[in-house]
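Give me the fold.
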Amino acid sequence: MRVLHALGKRVRRLIIDECSMASATQLDIIHRAVREVNRFNDMEEALGITLVGDFLQLAPVKEPWVFTADCWGEFAANTTKLSKVWRQDNAEFLAALNLVRAGKGAEGASVLSALGVRWNTALDTEFDGTTILPRNDMVSRFNQIALDRVQGEEFTVTSRRWGAQQPEWGMNQRTKEWGIPQATRLKVGAYVMILSNAQDFHYVNGDCGHIEGFDAEEQTVSVKLVRNGQTVELPQVVRGVEWSEKPDSYTGSVMIPKSEDDGAYIPRQHYRGRVKRYVMGQVEYSPLRLAYASTVHKSQSLTLDKVQCDFRDHFFSHPGMLYVALSRCRTLEGLRLVGQQGTFASRCTVDSRVREWI
């Protein structure tokens, strides 16, 4: 409550993106907390909540849909439908994607066939793009096999961390995967995905490209983007566990002046003057991962230049999975499908509870 109160004095709204994957329980908790914060006497303006998402995409894992929350009526009464698509601009490709989004797999497959899409019978293990697969173990295996084929010089980027850490930065005990790996093996020539935005947005989260070089001293990686052919220098980034109000456990004495505060990695508790935050822990890492393969869940919200979708696994029968996988691709020309047209039609499903949002 203390953190939310401090946040509410600085911002007007909490924005929850990809809300289809949020649960009703989570929304009710956040809604109650915001309502309590808004009762504080020093709240000059009420803090609000904005949900952004598409219920025809991925559902929460083993949790109730967010629209079954007790507080949902307040959101349903204040809904704006966005109709402009920014990821794709080919009207015929969009028409096919919208059919898949609505669960009309046979019709969507027919349109894709008319547009020249081929129904391949096997994975292209040398596909120069991102292959979307159903499970993490399949993705890891595909990425490592693809990396082993790259002939360029090998190097390793490492992360550094100290103090308090966000749970998602560490190892997931269920999947045994690191949110931010302690070390990542890469090669010059490897196909990678960027996981951060440049301040001037000359590269953005989800951009893919090939590694052109590595500066070990500066710990920077050069990546030639597929999207525009430009080569960008990717420095390490710093994420921190920061508090607006002084934590009881804060014992630091380092004060970073406003003029010198660039969010740098400082391996001890300190106060950032520019943003007025107490830093209780940090991680410094290279925001890259191999992009030869990805799961559907990790691809949601991303925009990819080239996508190979192997929809033969029964996993793709889950509602929204096939649509999310296909709609990551910018262009029809960048899409490669693996499986037969009839299988495509049977895998394309929609949860009956979300049909009102089609």
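The radius of gyration is 22 Å.
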